[in-house]
């Protein structure tokens, strides 16, 4: 009689993404939208950050310090984002951090996108930070089927689809994961993960607040 071998599964190089709901979205939404549109009205160019303007179309982008504005609602939103980031970072790094380590999350860059009909943002990633987030303040018509405006995340395994047969079905057929914007949701993801905002077709503005963060230990 042949003994059945024990096969151990080891998952390596996984890419964690996290989705949650902004706790005070209903309370903060109107004030945050007002702040976004106040800043947008003062913009002299569409891509005020001046970062990769050719990768963006039919959208307005602020400078990279939106969450630094001296506004109580913006400050509350920033505090919430940093608490969520720290909770996620502590959880995913639990096996790698010393037991007595203390840490803080700091948002180092933040901006809004106001995307209009036909707008999009080409594929990119965010250097010089560890965790990134997108807060769907107002998804506009993106919630409706066929209106676009989805965020697409790309498989970071560069050679994952160099060959396909039934044995590779688990890898997926597209190498992408599409996230449909839902009002008040936040998606948090590692900075190396390439992503894009697919073309949006709607009469309402699609408004998001995005941010980059670092973790500091002490």
Automatic annotation (TrEMBL):
NCBIfam families, per database record: TIGR02466 family protein
Pfam short name (any one): 2OG-FeII_Oxy_5
Protein name: 2OG-Fe(II) oxygenase
Top-level taxon in the UniProt lineage: Bacteria
């Amino acid at each position: 009689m042949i003994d059945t071998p024990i096969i151990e599964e080891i998952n390596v190089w996984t890419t964690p993404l996290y989705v949650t709901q902004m706790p005070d979205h209903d309370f903060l939404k109107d004030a945050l939208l007002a702040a976004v549109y106040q800043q947008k009205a003062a913009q002299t160019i569409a891509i005020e950050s001046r970062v990769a303007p050719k990768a963006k179309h039919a959208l307005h982008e602020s400078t990279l310090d939106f969450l630094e504005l001296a506004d109580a609602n913006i400050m509350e939103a920033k505090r919430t984002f940093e608490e969520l980031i720290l909770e996620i970072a502590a959880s995913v790094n639990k096996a790698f951090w010393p037991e007595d380590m203390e840490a803080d999350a700091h948002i180092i860059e933040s901006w809004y996108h106001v995307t209009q009909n036909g707008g999009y943002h080409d594929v990119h990633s965010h250097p010089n930070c560890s965790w990134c987030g997108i807060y769907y303040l107002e998804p506009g018509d993106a919630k409706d089927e066929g209106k676009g405006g989805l965020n697409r995340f790309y498989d970071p395994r560069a050679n994952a689809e160099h060959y396909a047969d039934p044995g590779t079905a688990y890898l997926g057929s597209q190498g992408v994961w599409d996230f449909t914007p839902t009002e008040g949701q936040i998606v948090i993801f590692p900075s190396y993960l390439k992503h894009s905002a697919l073309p949006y077709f709607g009469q309402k503005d699609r408004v998001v607040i995005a941010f980059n963060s670092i973790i500091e230990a002490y």
